[in-house]
Amino acid sequence: MRFTGSFPVLTFMLLLCFPVPSGCQGPWLLSGIVFDSVTRKELPFAQISIQNSSFGTAANDEGRFILSIPPGFEGDTLQVAYLGYHTLKFRIPAVSDTCMKVPLSPMTLQLAEVEVIALTPQEVIRRVVAHIPGNYGKDSLLLTAFIRTQKIYNGKLAEYTEAIIEDLKTGYSLYKPGHEKDRMSRSNIPNLLKGRVISDTNLVNSIGDPGKNAGCLGCNFIHDFAEFYHNTVLDESFFKYYSFRMEERFSPEGGRIYHIWFDQKKGVGKTLWKGEMFINGSDFALLLITQRPSFEAYEQFEKEKYRRQFTIRNTPGWLEEMPLLEMTTTYNARNGKYYLSTIRIANWMTFNNPATGQQVRFAYRNDVVVTDATRDPERIKSFKGDRSVGVSQRWDQIVAIGDEKFWAGYNYIPVEEKLVESIKEIAR
Fold it and tell me: Whole-prediction pTM value?
């Protein structure tokens, strides 16, 4: 299979290269890198969007991005945002294949700008939950998202998958405890638009239980905390299991941000989380939450791991040690509402077989980037999804032949370049 496309050379900010008039039919591409104007370090997962629209994307972990500008947005405003930095806004260049460097200026916060906190962390989180319907919208919406998954077995890339899906959500509303399963059964209905896989089949098969399935497409959205907040650190009934710490800060523009750290309390007999979240002080919108297993949960995990046994290399009885797992979910404002922006999961797992003394390491990385969202009732009415796709099939059983032109121009990072790198790695 032949793949084309590469990331353009990055030059001066907004330096135009390979100019193509915006009057050409179809979308045109903007590409670039977002970085700190002081340290010159890249800003991973920065948010890039067209102002007053639902179109946008996110940079990758190196701050690099590609954005496909749809027809009709000539002369509109592009905004680039990153938490803790001034949002940069500028007119969309009227040429295709624009190469740009986008420096963001960090917000300067003096010690005097950290004031005595009037609200407790728990009260701030209560307000986050209470404002979910207003901030994220109660009516149904249809997301378009890019999904990339990588499976690594004993340090070798075993499988690399990419998909473009539509995902129908039933909206963001408050619900009673115990209704999580019902809510999950009605929301996040996926439709696979495009997909492709590069796989070392023998290696994937040898992974066994941890790596055999593609996983349900809709399951990529279970870490949307604004939609599924019960049984998480946002759930008031779980406050008793956590310790909290909070700082209240002000940007030079006067905006307020609540930065909350949380960790499982000592002696709690559960396997819970440690992490942090950022909350917009003006409307209590959750902007970012990241969490990893709490070390306070180690003893409880050790007690429970013997109940969960896996089959790997056709041998049962493998036990998973406490994983090095990190999950980050972000939201950004588009067209007057907050929308899910990214879900990123990195999971490093070690499995031991007590009977044989063997050990294997399995790593799993998953990126979800929402590139468009609509509440158009006609599109939602005509939507047809299939919740079963990917649940019991490997990716190479459900995807069609690749479409190079489609992937080369998709709204994320240079997907072709990443794919070529992965093909080489799997072939080694």
Answer: 0.84
